[in-house]
Amino acid sequence: MLSLKSDSIHAATFTVHNNCTYTVWAAAVPGGGRELKHGQDWVVNTDPNFSDRGSIWARTNCEFDANGIGKCETGDCNGALYCVSKGKPPRTLAEYAFRQFNNLDFFDVSLMDGFNVPLEFRGTSSDCTRVIKCTADINGLCPTELRHSGGCHHPCTVFKNNQFCCNYNYSPCNPTAYSNSLKDLCPDVYTYPKDDATSTFTCPNGTDYKVVFCPN
């Protein structure tokens, strides 16, 4: 999805804000995890040596014990409050990679792991204020075959075939009726694996970012 380079990077700061009326358990890889009640923020400082693709998402309906072990209805990362692994679909995903082509940061909002909460991802520096937002009622409009108790699955997760997943350089990898429907609802987000042209955005390296769950 995002091309990656392994040279030195800027250690950006991500401010994660919960604007949902309910509690979410924010997750970041790298970064860990944090319970966020309505109105709370979590500041995630990236590792200056990190050169992979990073991701941030919300988990819902979680229960954790005093040791940070438990489970979440959506976005669960192997039952841990502090995430070090990919979350379980469905989850609305904010993704980023530093210092890509022309020394730019690449960032996007992806529905390739489905949808659980509305999300906004934006640059906060003066020279980059690009906003990516997906606030449509995707859970309410979710087709029956993709429904999950806490969200809406991407068809790749459910059907696991090349038409929706485009595995192993499958060609052609084209939009489907499912992805076109999502694109109509959220035009700036990833809806199928080759959706780069309309769904990957850039900011100068050195930009800081904000992720908002349930934006206005």
Automatic annotation (TrEMBL):
PROSITE patterns membership: THAUMATIN_1 (PS00316), THAUMATIN_2 (PS51367)
Q: Which cysteines are joined by disulfide bonds?
A: 20-214, 62-72, 77-83, 134-186, 142-152, 156-165, 166-173
What Pfam families does the entry give? Thaumatin (PF00314)
Task: Recite the UniProt keywords alphabetically.
Answer: Disulfide bond
* Protein family per UniProt: Belongs to the thaumatin family.
**Listed name of the protein:** Thaumatin-like protein
**Which species expresses this protein natively?**
Acer saccharum
List the top taxonomic levels of the source: Eukaryota, Viridiplantae, Streptophyta, Embryophyta, Tracheophyta
